[in-house]
Records
---
Amino acid sequence: MPIYQMVLTMLFVVNPFGCVPIFVSIVKDFEPKRQRLILFRESIFGGILALILLWAGKGFLQSIHIEDYAVNLSGGILIFLVAIGMIFPESHKPVKEKNTDGPKKEPFVVPIATPLLAGGGFFAVLMNLVNVAPMFDVALALVITWLIVIPVSVSAAYLQKLLGKRGLLVLEQLMGMMLTMLSIQIILGGINKFLDQDYLTFANFLISG
Amino acid sequence: MMSLFSLTLTLFLIMDPLGKVKQFLTILDGIPHRRQRFVIAREMLMALVAMLVFSLLGEYISAAFQVNMVTIFISAGIILFLTAIRILFPKQEHLPRVPGGEPFLVPLAIPMIASPALLATIMLFSQAEPFMWPMISSILMAWAISSFLLIFSRPLKRLLTQNGLLAIERLMGMVLVLIAVQRFLEGIVLFVADRQ
């Protein structure tokens, strides 16, 4: 498979353009400068994580006996929780309680880097690509994809100015709804894979082996 | 059922020493450094006792409460899942409330290291495993590595920095969610297979 095709596939799955409104709602409570920093940092983290997954993901998951439907379901559940938090934001008291140092309320690794950017779906695609193309090409395609993902994510910080406060609140609700749907779809995909398996064999493996 | 390596790795991940370094240091704050190491070693030993008890007596405990394998699989999954969710979406600094002074048994040994999630998993694996020794040795190995890391939590924090630790904590949270969902689904598989 040629590299540009892999890049397109990855871009389609990571879907940075679709994620931008979601990112806007997640980081909206921070200063614009801080937002850019957060988004830049998180997308770099996502890229690093994707590279690690590409290199060691399969072996790691196999060695702790995690099937791929569990990957789908976990990613789906986490995205679902993020989405519910967007639709029903908890207590609108001022978030400016900065009594603690360090990045705490700030999104850190979760949920932007993973599961939104480098999530279960992306992992599944990486695994498929490794089967059809040499590892190095996939890694190269991944890096190229991320060169597109990073500026697109950071642009979320500028989108906020365009939308204004009210626009942001509306956007958050809408994106929460879309994200809920996305998460349910991922979960259903996982359930599908789960139902396809052979129960009796797996049950025997679990109990005695 | 699982290889020794898988067992050890799974138990180590659920013990999650790297994700707990920060909390350990917060709890031990104010105790002289040399004493801290002693306290950590002592607490780890207590945790080990709890783990071994549940590994050896798990079968009798579940018989006494009349719970079957399906139940243990699913409940282990749920407890682990909720633990992981608290790591991933922290509400506030939720350090367990304890009587002041030096920690003794609570909260370091139980519930931080020998957490309900870990003990349930140990109970589960010990019953699923046909032999006792792989389970005992994997507990010992995972415990030894965790103890080593926690005893050196101060230099570890300096090495990884605050943010590094936080990133590891979050990633471990993701892994724990995966393990939790997998356990839960395995419980469902057993449930369905029992009915068939």
---
Amino acid sequence: MTRTTRTSAPHSCDVAVIGAGVVGCAVARRFALAGASVVVVERGADILSGASKANSAILHTGFDAPPGSLELDLVKAGREEYLSIHRDLGLSIVKTGALVCAWTDAEADGLAAIAGQGRENGIADLDVIDATAVRALMPGLAPEVRAAVEVRGEHVIDPWSAPLAYVTQALALGAKVWRGCELLSGRFDGDWLLDTSRGGLRAGAVINAAGLFGDDVDRRLGLAPDFTIRPRKGQFIVLDKAAARHVPKIVLPVPNEITKGVVICPTAFGNVLVGPTAEEQDDRTRATVETATLEMLRDHGGRLVPALRDIPVTAVYAGLRPGTEKKHYRVTARTESRAITLGGIRSTGLSAALGLAQHALRLFETFGMPLGPPAAIPPVTVPNLTEAEPRDWQRPDHGEIVCHCEMVTRREIEAALAGPLPPGDFGGLRRRTRAGMGRCQGFYCNARLAEMTRGRFRVPLAVEPEG
Amino acid sequence: MSDHDVIVVGGGPAGVAAALALRAEGVGHVAIVDREPVLGGATRHCAHSPFGMREFGRVYLGAAYGRRLERDARAAGITVLTGHSVTGLGDDGTLSVAHPGGVGTLSADRVVLATGAREMPRSARMLPGDRPVGILTTGALQSYVAFHGLMPFRRPVILGSELVTLSAVLTCLTHGARPVAVLETGPVPLARAPLRWFPGVMGVPFRTGVGIVDIIGRDRVEAVRIRRGGQEEVLDCDGLLLTGRFTPEAALLWQAGHGVDRGSGGPLIDQTGRTANPRYFAAGNLLRPVETGGWAFREGRAIGRALAADLRRAPSAATTVPVAVEGPVKLVVPNIIRRGERPAAGFDRFQLRFLRPCKGTLALVIDGRPAHRLSGSWLPERRVLMPMPTAVCQADSIRFEFREDH
């Protein structure tokens, strides 16, 4: 029994992780492997309900991270661990490489410094290449490209299956994930006593991985937050798979104030995305798309890669990054109250998550709290949804194809619904299977999915009859 | 050797009509491949729309029309492969196919693409706001109702004013949903009178010149904010139904690198119904959004006949001349002409459509000389037909010019 009520004795664990974004999922895994009993408290109906649901799905090398920063160390450590474990977890990876493209002479003059910083950061596999070499690598780039830094070690991954795999591994080791559960308050009296919307939880230590609510959660825990979350919205467009042939590599801008970091990026699913914007806002929950911005992104894509102009838009989305008043990660360990805050993980969370989890464990070890014996790595795999490896529809007896655009089979949907962590909402189903994520956005399959998911989601696709 | 003379991809009215015509012309091995479990295409969803009067002499509703198509196809000796998804088009007529047993290939001397059209989703329309549950197209709504007996909302706001919008309103009203309003972004409704009066008659407010400036809803749609003139207003609702704005289901063409026409979103298509690759033909709403099932059926039949004649020869090696359009002309079909070949049974006329309401003179200009003129005023999403003189087949340049009256 994991379910507790306010009247029964609280559930106990070694470590409570607040937030089931990519960082929380990675932390849960790392601590479960280290022998800790873990409960993850997630306010959303599913994991990845906040900042982690919308990102550019790049596994960064860290070539452009601030030199000497914790972020650089953790991006590198996270990437290294991902590369060593992804195969065992069934996670794909696409080694696209990236081009930091200069479009003006001034930008071209800055490339040597970018490459230099990259080498200083310990990323050796990069070079400044001239326009001819750039166009040879990516003929679809507009002829105005002057030069680029080629960073060969940049990858794209499946940004939703990776954290799902992390947390599934934690579940296999006995961790609990309490979804739809809000942390209300906490008090440390030698142990943590957490009050949640689902009842009490006693924990030896607390790890705050609450992303957009990082400062708020610190406050609820009675800890004075040493940062303030300043949400930064990023809008994206996803282009039809027809775009993929024109964009074999991640196209990064030379950082400046105008482009604000808009990337043109192949996805592991065979699409191309253009984004994100960077828009400061106060609201921590609402991430709207705006027509003019989406059109700007499409125009931007078409300017840099002219063939993209005519290619239909498959999807649009927006996400919020948990920025703070400073640029760097806001990681704090409070030994006296056995609390760790992983705050301000604003844009490299997917790359650094496994590194952050290692770091959190190192900080935890200074608390001197005993854990059980380290666990053997449980054999957990997640289904492949990327085009880098064979998909389920290519194997016999999948039942039928339910989502034709993304070629999602009935067997895949049924498996996701019956899995160890079934989706808590429609977005969760989409992230686990890609059903409804394609070019028709549910014209063909939405009704079928409504039927297959009846009675499963708090916000169902089909409404119940009146009266 | 190919295992079929002709494979038709898509078992809606156009595809089945093409297959039937091929069999009637004596073509031996014809197969229809459809990814759905039954034939009928878009007509399967449309419980309210009458189909079949002109092709079968009687009216069928929704799925019954598809059953009639399937029965006729099987009776004509056509191989019907439902539950088969075509995943790739080979240049030589080899098709990659996925089915519940796995994957495989099929091959044919000629292929007819008849994959139809679908409504544009919220993303491709670039509508602003939140992205909650409850934003659907008419096709999806009709699937809820027709196949599953479900409803996705009770009080939707409906966007659009095409023929399909009326079907959407009817579907809502007959299934316990009460639309809050029907909104058209343009200045005038796109459906013809008296159909355009229908929502009002049914007590649903109909408003033109209205833009959606925000969709509000954290989990499910709660409201839409609209703007008309300088005035903004919030309409409470529990869904947003996007109607019309059809777009050809051209993913296979995009993927194969076959030519996709910017105007129509469908294939490059010549006077015989051939695409850029002369082994591949196309018919129906894949060519241009969007015509009725009856039109698609007749078009499929004509292209099936033209294809039967083409099968007796090697695939055409003729060069192609583009048919250019300008200004407010959105699209023309056919949009390429294969030189030296007479207009065959495929298309006897050019079909055109306008992007916006306009009034003026449309001229077909062949090698710099006007060959035909048409004056009038047109609305978007309405079919415009122009004769196709035999001279186009020898032309070096073919274009449609439009002079707007002011």
---
Amino acid sequence: MAELPVHTAGLRKVYGSSTALEGLDLEVHPGEVVGLLGANGAGKTTTVKILLGLVAATAGEASLFGRRVADPQARRQVGYLPEHFRFPDWLTGAELLDYHGRLAGMPAADRRARIPEVLERVGLAGRGNQRLRSYSKGMTQRVGLAQAVFARPRLVLLDEPTSALDPIGRREVRDLIRDLREEGVAVLLNSHLLGEVELVCDRVAIVDRGRVVRAGRLDAMIGPGPQIRVRLDRVDERALAILGGLGEVVAVDDTTVVLAAEGTDPAAAVAAELVRAGYGLQALIPVHRSLEDIFVGLVSEGSG
Amino acid sequence: MSALPITRLSVKEAVSRRLLLAGALLSLAFLALFALGFNALYSRVASEAGQAEAAMAGQAETAVAGAIMTMLGVYIVQFLVAFLALFLATGAVSSEIDSGTLHAILARPLSRRSWLGQRWLAFAGTIAAYAVLMAGLLLGIAQMIAGYGAVAPWRAIGLLVLEGLVLLSLGFLGSTLWSTLANGAVVFSLFGMAWLAGIIEFAGEMVGNDLMRNIGIAVSLLVPSDALWRGAAYYLQSPAFMAASSAVGEPGGAGPFGGSAPPSAALIGWSIAYVVLLLAMAARRFGRRDL
């Protein structure tokens, strides 16, 4: 069996008196896009830095492809885009890629052939001979992505890869990530842009105060089907029985029921049944439960 | 070279900095100025000496003038080499961390020790090339104008290079410990302290004061830069100058900035060990640091 691209167990990091990670467990499998979600300071960047050997863990295990992260060879097949990435600005884009290819051990001929290919892939075709100094913020982020995927890594760690990009640029990055997945590359994506993660990740791990508070497949986490918030003049046993026949009652209070409905047009069925039974239907609101709801729920739960 | 990508990039970085280009131009201007001044002064001393009654005394006078001017010239070169080393070293690690350029590089399969070593090598090569070129050209000018020949020019240049490497390593270690600015303040102060201690030691020799001598020796252990310069200065004397100064009972009379004795093997050994030791400490410190 191939070794896991990313494996951590009980990862702990203490900086002086503050604890950044408190027993973080994480796995990323080949060809899987995993989103690491969390508020600022939750420990996402620290996790990535530990994986890259930039920061030493206080305790716990971390390995890439079965090699402990303290071994530089663990990073042989890894591409990384740092959050606050800066490159020597007197290099040209092509020189930067060549340099990183060299550091990754790529032969010269291979590097030469791959430079235009990767520049094109990130939307910088023809800009390779321009100095990085003259690049815009978005172009710098693109060349950073190019650098991360240049040496054909089997694992790519992206720390907020779209922060400087416009909506079109973000979409291109999503496409790039999907392509990587197609090629069997594992991707660990750090982001606080929940929408981004929702669109591209197979799995998410929600990090709060240094530990994973929830992890799993995105569809399982969000749950199947739409939810409907039903407000009535009164909520009694009979009303719940009727609603129970149309779906699963998720939450109840004096006047409101939240229903995880089934069927193709649940709202119409709910309205018709309740009115027929003589209830005063005051509101019928479809609720789109998103990753954001789960995230906010989990994170504020923790801090409450 | 292709096996040392960091070295390659660091050399390129040094070359691409405008500051260093300006430094190179100023260095050339300095050499030109030295040639002009040396020529003017020397021809004047030589013509005055020609009128002297005893030919022997005249020869001694020109020898002394040539030696003092040459040594002053190399003394300035020594400062230039030292400043180059300190400027390259003060931010060698810290500025890379602060600017964030280091993270993407160390995310490659490259150990920190290797990164540090390759970077040191690049700067060491730059400093050595600069020292050899500047001192070599300056001695060449003195040779051309006055026929000045130092007793052991290559030993002197070797000691200058070693001085540069000592300061480079000191700055490297500081750069793994402190911010660029703080490190700059520390290493320039240490360099200045070594310089001052050299003068105190010289004065101690003159008046026979053991305490002053010991201060000089103690500081030389901490920062051997000035002691290495004094060794270089000894080898820069011409045989005629040595003869002239011992004739007046002042062997190695190059004054408080020169050298009156060849460098001891202990000094050279300690300086080499110092470079290795400081680099090892820098690697150790840098290897453990969270970035």
